Amino acid sequence: MRKRVAVIGGGIAGLAAAVRLRDLTPPDTEIIVYEQSGALGGKLRTGELAGVTVERGAESFLMTGPDGVDSAAVALVKRLGLEHALVHPHRVPAALAFGGRLAPMPAGTLVGVPSDPAALGDIARAEPGRDADSGAPLLGEGQDIAVGALVRERYGPEVVDRLVDPMLGGVYAGHADRLSLGVTMPQLAAAARVEHTLSAAVRAAQAASKRVPGQPVFGALDGGLSRLVGAAASASGARISLGLPVREIARTPHGWRLLLGPAAAPPGSGAVQTDDVDAIVLAVPARPSARLLASVAPGAAEGIGGLDYASVALVALALPAGTALPELSGFLVPPSEGTLVKAATFVTRKWERPEGGPVIVRVSLGRAGEEDRLQFDDAVLTDRAHRELGELLGVALPAPVASWVQRWGGGLPQYTPGHHERLAAARAELPAGLALAGAAFDGVGIPACVESGERAAEDVCKALEDAA
C-alpha cells in the first residue's frame, strides 16, 4: 500500500528530510511538506540590495566536519547537482572591536578558547595559575557545563568577555555563561572528559580535527542560498502546502491525522481540514513542536518545551561606492562594549562582487535577553546600526544609499547545559513513526540542520519498515 509521510516545517531541516525520504522510500510514496508561512526556506532567504545579492539569514555553511569529510550541507549540495555553484569567501581576516579599536582576531583558538592564553597579547589576559593540573579530567563522563563557567574557572573572566562571548554571540546570539559546552563545542567537551587542563583539552580537540589546512572552511552558492531551498524542494518531489498551519496531530489506528487551519478557526468550519498520513517528521521550533506533541507524547513535549530563543535583527547598508573600510571581512563586538551591534560583515570585501558598485555591510543587532532593545521601527534600527558601525570603526560613514532590515524574532536556540540529555529523554518518549528535526534539537548551522533532517527521515523510514 502506498505510504504518505508528512514533513511539518519547510526550513532546510524539513526539506533535507523530504529529500532523504524520497531517496529511501518507494517511488510512489507521497511526501507532503507543510509550511505555515508563505515561503519555504526558514532562515535561508536570499535578498538583494542596490543590485547586490545579500543573504537575509544564514550566509554560508561549513565545508567539512571535524572528521575531514564533506559536511552534510556539502553532501546535499552535491546530491542536488549544485556543486558547480559552490563559492567561497575571500581569505580576509576578521577582528574584534573593543576599547575604541579593531584588534585582529587571534589565531589558533577554538571558538575563542585559546590553547595558549599567553599568546593573546593585550587582547585578553588569562589569570596565571588557574589552569593547573588537578589530577583529574576537567569534566566527568557525561557531564555538561556552560562554556563560560569552564573558561572563567580556568583562564579568568577577560578571555570569556573579550573572546569567547563575542564568538559564541556571533553564532548563537547568546552568552557563554548560559550556553552548553556539549552542544556548542562538542570536540572540546569530549577532550575535557580526558584532559586535566583546559589548554591541553583545546590542543587535543584541535589535534583531533581532520580538516585539511588550506582548504576552504566556508562555502555558499553563487546566486544565493535560496537556490538550495528550491533545488531541495524540487528533488524531494514533495507536495508543498504553504500558508496552512498544522494545529494538531493525533494518533489513528493506522498512523496519524493532521488538523490543518488557523488556530482561531473552530473545528467543523470550512477553514479546518484534516489529512491522514503514515509518519511525521516534525521540523519546527521547540515550542510549536511541544504544542503539537502535548496530546500524543506529553513527556517529550515537556522535555523540549522549555528551550529559550534569542531574537536578532539584520540591517544591510549600501554605502556609496568608494567608501573606505578596513581590510577585513568584518568584526565581532563583545557584549561588554554595550552596543546593540554585535557583529558586522563587509559583504563586498568578503565575497566576490563586481567592482565599482556600492559597498555593502551587513550588521547584526541583538543578543539573548535584549529583545526589548530591538522594539523599534526599521528606520530607528537602521540609524542605530549606521551610527554604531561608524563609532566602532572610528570613522564618519556616509549615509547609505539603500538599506533593509530583516528581523528574526525567536530565531536562535539557546542550549543550556544538559540539552543533549533532555533531548535524548524526549526522543525516547516519541511514538514510532514520529521524529524531531531542526536547529531546536541538533544545533544551529546549515550542516547540523541538514543532518538532523536526514536522520529524522531515516528514523521514520525504519518505523514504516518495522510496521510493514
TrEMBL record:
Residues 12-460 form the Amine oxidase domain. SUPFAM superfamilies: FAD-linked reductases, C-terminal domain, FAD/NAD(P)-binding domain. Its EC number is 1.3.3.15. Signal peptide: none annotated. It catalyses: coproporphyrinogen III + 3 O2 = coproporphyrin III + 3 H2O2. InterPro entries: Amino_oxidase (IPR002937), FAD/NAD-bd_sf (IPR036188), Flavin_amine_oxidase (IPR001613), Protoporphyrinogen_oxidase (IPR004572), Zeta_carotene_desat/Oxidored (IPR050464). GO terms for molecular function: oxygen-dependent protoporphyrinogen oxidase activity. Transmembrane segments: none annotated. The keyword Flavoprotein applies. Belongs to the protoporphyrinogen/coproporphyrinogen oxidase family. Coproporphyrinogen III oxidase subfamily. NCBIfam families: proto_IX_ox. This is Coproporphyrinogen III oxidase. It comes from Paractinoplanes brasiliensis.
